[in-house]
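question for whoever is on the cluster today: can someone run the full assembly for these? three chains, 773 residues total. i dont have access anymore since they changed the login thing
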Amino acid sequence: MIFNTYVLFPSHSDGLALEKKLKEKSMKYTISPTPRNLSKCCGISIMIDPKILEDVKSIIEENKDIKISGIHTIERKTRNWFKEEDKYV
Amino acid sequence: MADYKELWKSLDIDLEKHDELCEVLPEFYGDIYMTQKNRPEGMNYYNFVVSEIHGFRIKELNEFRGKGGKVFGGFCVFVPDEVTLAAGGVGIGLCGGSDFWVPDGEKVLPRNMCPLIKASVGAKIGGTCPYFQSADMLVGETTCDGKKKAWEILGEYTPIHVMDLPQMKREKDIENFKDEINIFREKVESITGNKVTAENLKENIKLVNKKRKVLQRLYNARKVQNLPISGKDALLISQIAFYDDIERFIEKTNELCDELEARIEKNISVFDEDTPRILITGTPMAIPNWKMHHLIETSGGAVVCEETCTGTKYFERFVDEDNDDLDSQLKALSERYMGINCACFSPNEGRIKDIIRLYKEYNADGVVYNSLPFCHTYAVEYKKVKDALDKEGIPVMMIESDYSMQDAGQIKTRLEAFFEMLNMNKELAL
Amino acid sequence: MYSIGIDTGSVATKGVLFDGNIVDNVILPTGWSPKNASKEVFNKLLERNNISEVDIKRIIGTGYGRISMDFADKAITEITCHAKGAYYLNSNIRTILDIGGQDSKVISLDEKGNIIDFVMNDKCAAGTGKFLEVTLNNLGIDVNEIDDLVKDNKPMDISSMCTVFAESEIVSLLAKGGNKGEIASGILYSIAKKSSSLLNRVSIREKIAFTGGVAKSKELKRILKDKLNKDIFTSDNTQIIGALGAAVIGWNLK
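^ ran it for u. tokens below:
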């Protein structure tokens, strides 16, 4: 099982502000659509490896002006959108 | 996360139905895009744009309109953005790349027609696309019979201006399209209340050329042996080019190109060395239509170039920047746009030359001719293209497919067989 | 040493044991699990020939179930395998018409047996084994009986290429008291018509091989021959050609 951690924000500008900080510290992250089961509002989140969560948390601590609306670690699941073969397997 | 509900409501979006779209998009994008390995970091910007596809950019457009700005929604690479921008307007490309909108389109259109048209019309009449809702005017063109007649229906729902695109490329046709651009200029001026002058048009010809240049720079990075970026990602960037803020898009795409060029220096590739390189040619791929690229790149191939409206047709060739009077500028615009080798022209030998040239420029191994169903111009033109490519010894495969997922298994088999054939050709050539 | 090719189709799973020549072959119904069917074919080939896994140098999977064959060394599409198999049986073959359970395809080969071009039917079942199966079902007869039934009967016109429409067309022909032999003959003509339009999408060069389960019908072969005015080659091994091609590829792999 692979897990991903998502940082959610009240607005995209907070997301971009955290992105800037992560970039400065050369930390690996991916801007991602917010998974539907975490929030019903379309918008960005930042996806990180759960291993670096503590480091990211301390960056958030240091930068009080960056508002977040949650941190969630969930299992990565992929759906085969163009399925055909696997339905009998 | 930011709540855009109020914004959508103000745009008269069918919130409930729109929510169904919001429900699938993150997962769809995540599975198709985020599962790719070793993506360039610069793709984060485009992840951002897609994640906020109905949020951030819509808000931006809304603020622009709040200050009296006007938004023009287009469907085609023939609409001259230079003119829109010169009048202080903003041009955006409109949706039509998903099955989601097709049932609404079928309420007013026949079933047996191009899914792109059905989806575009459906997106408007179903009230589920905030871009349509943000447009003060739509701009259609006469590139095919289906669209031509669909504008009449769409016109019942929203103001639309139709540009008459000539279907031949004689001197008088270029002159005619110049007139059409002039009529479009008057229309845009009347809506924005701003004059298009030789000065501001010159400036915006330069600006749109700059966007073409950065897209060419991106595509140049796909000509090398070790591909620094997937075809799927490059397609996404082309699609986003249609509706993103032009200055920001140029800046961000140049940043990405810096990264890609550094990858090329270091021989970093997102594909194995012997992956067959595919040139795609055919009908446009409107967002979120990523089907063919996804199928190719999950069946052992790599897309190196798109000879499509969401590819080279959009950015190749520049508008002459050295004109200082409106008349010469309009002429230069007409010449550039009429140089696009769309299948709506007869004859269209230029497209065949383009395909052969691009095949060589991008070091492709084979060509996938992709056509949406019921697209007569592209489907008929296949014969001419196939004959010419056979003569050149260039392998080509035709795949006709719509937005649905049902034929994916069979298409994958055909693609895999095509790649096996290309690999065998390569081995024999060694 | 041996190689094994397994072709897991939608209806049947075929296996060939190969050592430079065909040693043995097995055909089993695919059933609901292509994975189990292919494993079963594999085991049966070993068992019947008193050999074990260590004697097998390569296992190549093909057919639509190739992806689920986790014990195979490589998955290769049925298009490439069919080309190899037919060419192995007759190196004069340049065009192959293959009608399988779910799809029909035409493959064009060069003099070395490499694929130059191929076309496949789209997602519709017209002109495939499925079309034959469904329509014959309406007549209450089995695929294997069709040649006897059709013999010397003039074809009744079945105009619908679409399986669903053809079905209702046949029902109404029966209701009008249509002769079963003439209807069955009409069904074969319909398949021949669809097949020749598929063939015409590539440049047909002789010799032409007709393969796949549907190629077992001698009447269909005759109709095609008349329609194209060209000789058609079939093989008694028609059903195992894909598996054979897979085995040949496995054998030649370094």
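summary bc i know u wont read the tokens: Strands of chain B lie at 71-74, 90-93, 137-141, 160-163, 277-282, 302-307, 366-371, 396-400. Residues 198-220 of chain B form the longest helix (23 residues).
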